[in-house]
């Protein structure tokens, strides 16, 4: 019985016995470790494929479980190879199955026959997926040499310089992150200051002239100022020429005297006809009036 219940008998001495298991002379794995001195551990093993027992010739299905004797029998590189020795449940014959780390599978080594049910692409008109034929002819050594030389050249001429360049670039940027960060932050602060001043000036201007908040103002530098001035003068010229045209039209119609736009044109008898003509003149000026197209500069 394993020491599950942690009952410590009166004659148990921790110094001497170390553990309850050793006090009782038992292994921690209990009965499963009864052959541990031969390197055998009893484990539950499930058949990974269908087999025929070699002794009684009965078919045993995949998934049947046995209390198998598990034993390490070797290594494939650093991976241990285990063998599982099972006793047939239909007779008293033993059979043994081993792991095969190289091909990641199990193989029957003795006492039974494995039913081959693996899908073989070659057998079914396809190509072999894994070429593990040991008798395969060696590859052309010259071709292999050429290939490896090419690879070496590529490594020397392209890959290594590129890696070095990347490395030096990384060194350049990652050398002193504190200074770089300081520089960047200083610049950001300066830019932010300028931007803030500009924003304040714009806001003040908008407040002064009651301009909408969403209005976007152009940058105030020499080029814009010159352009604005030009626009202003163009607008002025257009206005003057329109004014001249209007005056000429009125003169042609004969409402306005040739020298002065009528302040006092007539009196007495012709008053009613004069009023009609004045109305006509007003209508004409209204039709002659155009939309003011010139934009006004902002300062
Ligand atoms: Zn059997």
Label the structural class.
alpha+beta
Q: What separation lies between the terminal Cα atoms? A: 103 Å
Number of helices: 6
Can you tell me the overall shape?
A: elongated
Strand arrangement across the biggest beta sheet:
1-4-5-6-7
Which small compounds were modeled alongside the protein? Answer: zinc ion
Helix content: 40-55%
Biggest sheet, open or closed, and with what strands and sense?
Answer: 5 strands, antiparallel
What is the average of the pLDDT values? 84
What low-confidence regions span 5 or more consecutive residues with pLDDT below 50?
A: 261-269, 293-299
Order of helices and strands: HHEEEEEEEEHHHH
Sheet-strand content, in percent, reads 15-25%
Q: Over the alpha carbons, how many angstroms does the gyration radius reach?
A: 53 Å
Total beta-strand segments: 8
What is the gist of this entry?
With 299 residues, the chain is α+β, with helices and mostly antiparallel strands. It contains 6 helices and 8 strands. A hairpin with a 2-residue loop joins strand 4 and strand 5 (79-87).
Describe this structure in words.
The chain is elongated and about 145 Å long. The C terminus is likely disordered. It is built from six helices and eight strands; from the N terminus they run ααββββββββαααα. By secondary structure, the protein is of the alpha+beta class. It has a five-stranded antiparallel sheet with strand order 1-4-5-6-7, with no helix packed on it. Among the domains are: about 80 residues, no CATH class; about 35 residues; about 70 residues, no CATH class. The structure holds zinc ion (ZN). Zinc ion binds next to loops. This is CWC16 protein.
């Amino acid at each position: 019985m394993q020491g599950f219940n942690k009952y410590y008998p009166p004659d148990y001495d921790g110094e001497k016995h170390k553990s309850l298991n050793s006090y009782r002379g038992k292994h921690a794995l209990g009965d499963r470790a009864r052959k541990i001195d031969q390197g055998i551990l009893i484990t539950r093993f499930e058949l990974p494929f269908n087999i025929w027992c070699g002794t009684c010739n009965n078919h045993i299905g995949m998934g049947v479980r046995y209390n198998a004797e598990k034993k390490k029998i070797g290594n494939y590189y650093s991976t241990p190879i285990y063998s599982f020795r099972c006793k047939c449940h239909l007779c008293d014959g033993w059979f043994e199955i081993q792991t095969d780390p190289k091909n990641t599978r199990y193989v029957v080594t003795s006492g039974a026959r494995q039913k081959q049910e693996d899908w073989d692409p070659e057998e079914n008109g396809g190509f072999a997926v894994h070429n593990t034929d040991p008798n395969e002819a060696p590859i052309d050594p010259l071709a292999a040499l050429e290939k490896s030389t090419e690879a070496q050249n590529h490594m020397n001429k392209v890959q290594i310089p590129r890696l070095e360049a990347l490395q030096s670039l990384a060194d350049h940027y990652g050398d002193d992150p504190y200074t770089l960060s300081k520089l960047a932050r200083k610049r950001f602060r300066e830019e932010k200051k300028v931007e803030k001043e500009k924003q304040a000036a714009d806001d003040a201007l908008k407040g002064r002239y009651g301009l909408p908040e969403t209005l976007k103002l152009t940058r105030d530098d020499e080029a814009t100022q010159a352009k604005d001035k030009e626009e202003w003068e163009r607008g002025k010229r257009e206005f003057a020429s329109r004014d001249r045209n209007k005056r000429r039209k009125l003169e042609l119609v004969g409402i306005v005297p040739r020298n002065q736009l009528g302040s006092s044109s007539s009196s007495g008898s012709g008053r009613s006809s004069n009023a009609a003509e004045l109305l006509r003149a007003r209508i004409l000026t209204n039709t002659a009036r155009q939309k003011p197209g010139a934009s006004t500069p902002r300062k």
